[in-house]
Amino acid sequence: MPPTQVLIPGNAKRGTPLMLAAPSVALDLPLRVLVRDDCQGSTRASFHTAAELEGAHALPAAPRRWLLRSGWFLTRWARRRPG
């Protein structure tokens, strides 16, 4: 198996309101990012996007804003990774 890590950038202060608003979102929190090397020697980052999580869980507007900001951050981070 190639080098692989799971990063967990969780925040209880942010995740708790999401879980109170839509309890099923607890299945996907804390957010997780799978970082691995592929067969070509590149590094790949995989995670559920904010849009995917929003679609899977009926989130009200206020907690949804935090999830969208987190998704934006993860997307920017993944695009900046070398590999």
From TrEMBL:
Species whose genome carries this gene: Cupriavidus nantongensis
Full protein name: DUF302 domain-containing protein
Pfam families, per database record: DUF302 (PF03625)
Domain DUF302: residue ranges: 1-48
